[in-house]
Amino acid sequence: MAISDLPTLSILRTKMQWHEERQKVLAENVSNSNTPNFKPRDLVEPKFEIGSGKIDGGATTLAMARTSSSHIASDNADPSFGENNRAGFLTRPAGNSVSLEDEMLKVSSNQMNYAAVTELYSKSLHLLKTAIGKG
User: Fold this and answer.
1) What single DSSP character describes residue 56?
2) d(CA 44, CA 24)
3) In sequence order, what are the beta bridge partners of 56?
4) CA end-to-end span of the chain, whole Å?
5) Which region among 8-17, 20-29, 79-88, 125-134 has the lowest average model confidence (pLDDT)?
6) Do residues 98 and 40 touch, judged by C-beta distance below 8 A?
7) % helix, strand, coil for the chain, step of 5
């Protein structure tokens, strides 16, 4: 079995690649902040099935669980809860809707998450080397 076949390392590699591509998209948003009629873009975060290593690019909904009969039931919960509803909210007269503050927050968050995933990948490789007696 090759190291590339390990599901954990494959997921971490996919996550790093996603962060790299997202950085490019966010950089395009920032660089086009004064371009007329430019709309900011973002990437959909990959979702992983726990235990199988499968990757899904679409978002899934999670049903709310009632652990007690005294909890309020949520039959008609808003599926858009937590989504960014500000897209296109601050449109300039030229039609540009890029908010530099929002984009820079996304860039810094993306950078921190990339660093965390890279550290996890590095630690996982170190653990594998230790397990086989090479570390």
Assistant:
1) E
2) 14
3) 47
4) 19
5) 79-88
6) yes
7) 45, 5, 55
The dihedral through the CA atoms of 116, 24, 11, 127 has a sign that is negative
Please state, in angstroms and rounded to a whole number, the distance separating the CA atoms of residues 127 and 84. Answer: 38
Higher pLDDT among residues 13 and 57, named by residue: 13
* Residue written as token pair 């909890």: 71
Residue 7, number of CB atoms within 10 A of its CB: 13
d(CA 92, CA 18): 30
| Residue bearing tokens 């996890």 | 120
Q: Report the run of H or E that residue 104 belongs to, with start and end.
A: helix 100-131
**The pair of three-digit structure tokens given for residue 21, joined into one six-digit string:** 């591509």
Q: Phi/psi class of residue 60: alpha, beta or left (left: φ > 0; alpha: ψ in -120 to 50)?
A: beta
Question: Which ranges in 5-99 belong to alpha helices (H)?
Answer: 7-31
> Residue 74 — left, alpha, or beta (φ > 0 → left; ψ -120 to 50 → alpha)?
beta
Average pLDDT, whole number, for the chain? 80
pTM exceeds 0.70, yes or no: no
CA angle 88/46/56 to nearest 5° reads 115
